[in-house]
Amino acid sequence: MGRIVVDVMLKPEILDPQGQAVRSALPRLGLTDFTDVRQGKRFVLSVDGEVTPEHLARAREAAETLLSNPVIEDVVDVHELVHDEPEQAPLTGEGAR
Amino acid sequence: MGRIVVDVMLKPEILDPQGQAVRSALPRLGLTDFTDVRQGKRFVLSVDGEVTPEHLARAREAAETLLSNPVIEDVVDVHELVHDEPEQAPLTGEGAR
Q: InterPro entries, alphabetically (chains A, B) (predicted)?
């Protein structure tokens, strides 16, 4: 089974209240390094078999038409999820490496 | 200015109604390749200057404590956003390459 990642972020000129809320909460946890936070969406699309260029083209079409609102959002990346990537293998908690 | 990406996805065993809604809508757009869709969150944290290992450690701490709910979500990736990555440079629309 192949998987394709689509990353969608608000356009830089669009206000991001969720990101700002996170930004404001970080210093309360003692984390003062971060000057800005933006929150976006990440989709993982599964396909049968290997990911082909046609799958990627259709994922891009889905990204433009359904997964993002082109008035306020940018599709910043569409790529195959390679098996070496630590996806779904949590970095923390019970299943962590 | 350095940037760090934190990717958070629902744990595989947790139902994802948003992803299912997207999954159900795709065939209506003629996109029938996709067998499953999962929707997660993507955060971009900015820091002053270069991203250091300490920044990444603190981003991971933020990911675990604030950006994800460890009961239902996994932090699947924390990495520096390298300038070669097409981030914030939209793939589509006015600013597209």
A: PurS (IPR003850), PurS-like_sf (IPR036604)
